[in-house]
Each structure stands twice: as structure tokens, then as C-alpha cells.
Amino acid sequence: MTNSTETPGYSQKVYKPAQEYRDDARIKDYALSYANFEKDPEDFWRRVASDLLWFKPWDKVKEWDYPHAKWFVNAKCNITYNCLERHLKNNRRNKVALFWHGEDETEKIYTYDRLYKAVMQFANALKNLHVGKGDVVCIYMPTVPEQIIAMLACARIGAIHTVVFAGYGASALNERIVGSGAKIVITADVAFRRGRTIPLKPIVEEALIHAPSVERVVVLRIQDPPTALLDDFEVDFYEIMKKADKECPPEEMDAEDTLFILYTSGTTGAPKGIVHTCGGYMVGAYYTTKYVLNVKDDDVYWCTADPGWITGHTYAIYGPLLLGSTIFMTEHTPDYPDLGIWWHLIEAYGINVFYTAPTAIRMFMRYGETWPNKYDLSSLRILASVGEPLNPEAFEWFYHVIGKEKCPIIDTWWQTETGSHMITTLAGEDMKPGYVGKPIPGITADVFDKEGNPVPPNQAGYLAITNPWPSMMRRDHNDEERYKTYWNSKDCQYYSTNDLAIKDEDGYIMIIGRSDDLIIVSGHNIGSTEVESALISHHAVAEAAAIGKPDPVTGNQVKVFVILIEGTTVTEKLIHDLKYHVRQTLGPIAVPAEIEFVDSLPKTRSGKIMRRVLKAKEMGIDPGDISTLDE
Fold it and tell me: Which of 240, 346, 369, 582 is packed most tightly, with the most Cβ within 10 A?
């Protein structure tokens, strides 16, 4: 049991973990650890990186040429060598690396030895398709073990993977295939979700109509009878794997070689291709999984994120495998076949560390305590949250109902661009509902005003990272100028997160929203411009504007304001058609929850839509400075 005390300001409560959890934390004294980092930041990261295996050590820890950084300069490594061989050498050969549970109750188990062999053989299968170092492989798959095998196989041979969330539609998939110049696409014939079969192969076929870089498609055939394949262009996942050699030594990669490209929605234009590199990303993923999520050697660990998002990359796959952990993965959504399925799986597999999104927590809150109370959740040791701010009400429910007032709640703030955790409340530290926490040792962050000056405690400002870190994005794929906008902060050299925040007297930071036009729905980034472009591509729409409207379950819902082509009549069928059009173009996560038809949109004199004015009106608040509004 922890103690709760009132504190003035924005935070109403402070929860103090019991002594056993303070003793269990890997960082037992935050202030001392942070002070040691500040004394010599490069030595701090050198010591972290030294836990891992390198084929060649670095000449220097960091080179910083604002706004570009290099980490572990000239070092040679391979992330799969650290995810696999390193554990075989440490007597983890027969330890379970992955438990997978399908919707049909099928279970698959991979030990570290079995996963190692599967990755090597599929890596050779890719080589047989003429995939080599520097080639891009697009992975568009459901949440199955083969998705992990494909990602690791790419990294094994130095190919660059770009994973696309399997909920995206053909247009969004095409944009990512073309943008990355993918040579191979790996997919599945179908996915299973809430008892339905969702065809993926037809989406890929449509996405490839204007994708000249793609030479072959690899299909994981799940259905029976097997889906027909197009000769000489489509090949079966396991057939090519069975024909491949079984031994595949890891490619020696420079620390600054590209590991993967992951696309994330931008506020303007096309999605951003975030580039992460082999060395720095590996160190950041390892360090934060170990010290923030506090995963221990005998834990069973479950991160509910889809591998198509950065959380899935770092904390469902790479981070825990670097640590030699046992991962749990499932196709199950939180409410199918009933609202008890996740709690049943926690009980059945003895989950110790559970990392999920506030959206899921808020959904469960709507149905009370009955479902979770049916199951034995005593195996849980750490509860963690990711994707968007964990509001105080969700914190309280998670802490009391799921954690039974004993598990530390580790809220985490970070981004696709940062690669790994930046701000959190470490296990063993006092927890403040509504506040994500403090910068972790290794990270320097502060809250600034528009001029780059630190703001006083409890005043809103712009969250910024003031020094480089190993897992930082290295560039925006094929768009140097857009990369520079992250660091375009007048005379102050810091990384702009585009998040608004408040810092209290104790240094705890609360994230209060986006300063740009990105909409976060259930932890997924959706660009306003992407939704607007999808709508405008419909023959009935002249103009459109999209905003995020606060929602108690998903954090936000997409609301759009639409100007129709003159002469078009609003009907129920038209509303349905517009939503369906967005779904087909971008996927179900971007479908507007509400469409309002208007005659005009608020714009600046230069023609830019002022979405904040629409949002302010929607929420009944002051829109602020509208001096640039075109009357």
C-alpha cells in the first residue's frame, strides 16, 4: 500500500511507492543519478553502451554539429547480435523469447534459440531475393511472430525496414512504399480482428499500382486453402524460408547506418519518414527498457502497442529483446471476445510488466471494476502508459483497480522522433497523477516561452530538449529542410517537441497538448492535412479542415468541417460516403467521428486555415490572437 498526500498547484495528490518498490527500482536515487549524468554526459552514455556487444568500439561517443549528431562514431555493431547471440552466450538459449496468443486461441512459443534460427533463415531468404545492405523492405503485416522475424531478418543483413501499420489503407501504404523506395513488400493474406477476417493482400495489390521500386512481394499465407499467388512476383513466406540456408552471420553495421525508417503523420504535406540508426537507437532502447520500465530477467513483459508504431518497435520488440526478456504478444483487442480478455491473458501468462495506452484504460473505466475483478492480477509488478497524456482520472483507476494500490505507474513521454523515453516517473519515485514526470538521467529538457526563456513553475510553455541524445532521429528521409524545422528555434539550439507543457516546483512536467495541428487519436498520430487531403480528393468536396475534439475514451476524435462543391446536397448517404472514402484512403483510425458542413473556413490572409480558431469555437474558449485572420 502506498501513501497519498495532497500537494498545492495542478497536482492534487502524490503517491509514494512502498519501500519494496523503491528497493526494486534500478535507479534508486534519481537526484544522484541525474547529477552523475550532468557531470559527464558522454561518460554516462559510454557506460550504458558498454553493456552491449560491439564488433568495433567507437572512436568518440558523440559528434555534435548543430542540428546533426553522430553517436558512437565509427563503431560497428548489429542490433540482432545483441538481441539474439548475446543471450545464447549468456545461457538464455532455452529461455522463452516470445509467447504469442491468437484470436482463435492458437499459441506459439519461441525460445531465444528458435527465434535466432528463424531470423537467420528468413534473412537468407531475403538475400535470395537480392535484398542487401541499404535496401528498403516494407513490412505490412498483422501482429504475428513472423512480423518480428521479418524485422529482425532485415536488421540482420543490413536492410532497412519500414513497417506500416496494417490498419492503413492503400493510399497511405502506397505513399510510404514510394517515399521509402521499398524494394520488397512483406505482407499477409489476411489479418484477424474482433472475429473478422480482414484481407490485406488486396490492399497491397492496390498500393502497388504506382510503386515502381517494388520487385517482389512476400506473402504469409494464413488462410486455408492457401491464397493464390502471382507467379514470379509474389512468393510464400515459409516456402522461401525453407529453401534458404540456415546460417547467416550478422552484417557489420556502422553505428550511424540506417536501421529503419518509420513514417509518422506531419502537420503539413506528406508523412515524415523518421530515420533511426543502428548504434544510438540500440543504446536508447536498451537503456530505457532496463531503467525506465524496470524489466527484470524473470519477468513476462507485455507492451500492447502494434509493431507498426514506434512504441511497438522500441518497447514491444527491440528493447525487451536487447534485455533478454520474455515478450508476450497477442492479436486480441481489449474488448473481444469480451472486456475480460486482457485481464484473462495477464492471469494466464503471469504478466509482470504491462505497458499500454490511456485510451485502453479509459475504455475499461467506462465499464467499471467488474471485469478486471474476475481475474487474478497479482503477478503485475509494473504498470506503464504511453501514447498521450495519462489524465488523473485514468491514473487513479489504473492504480487502484488494476494495480491494487501497489504497482508503480510509469507514465512515459517520448515521440517517434526521439526513439526512446525522454520524460517519466521512474519506478520508486513519487507519482503525481496528471504529471508524466521528470527528464530521465541522460536527457535534458525544459519548458520555454516563445523567446526561448525558461518559464516560471506552473506556467504553460513549450517543451524542448536542450541537448542531443543517442536515439534521436538522424534525419527526415529525403527532406533535410523538414528535419531542420525541429531545431529551428531562433537563437536557442534546442529540439522543439511541438508539445505544450507545465513544470511544477519539483520539476515534474505535465503535457497539456500539441502546439501544432497533429491529432492524437488513441495514441496514433494523424495529420490534419492527411485527413483534409483525403476528403478533398472526393468529388463532392471543395475544401476541408480537420481538428481534434477531446474525447473521454480516445483522447481525441477527428472532427472535420467541409465545404461542398456548389450544387451538392447534404444527405446521410453523402456523410457515409465521405467517411468511407477517408477509411479507404487512410484507414479506420482516421475516420471522422463528426462532419460539419460549412460555407467558409477561417483563414489567414495568406490562405492558411486557422484550425485553432475552429477548435476554440468548438470548445467554447477564446481563440486568442486572430489579427492575421482574413475577414
Answer: 582
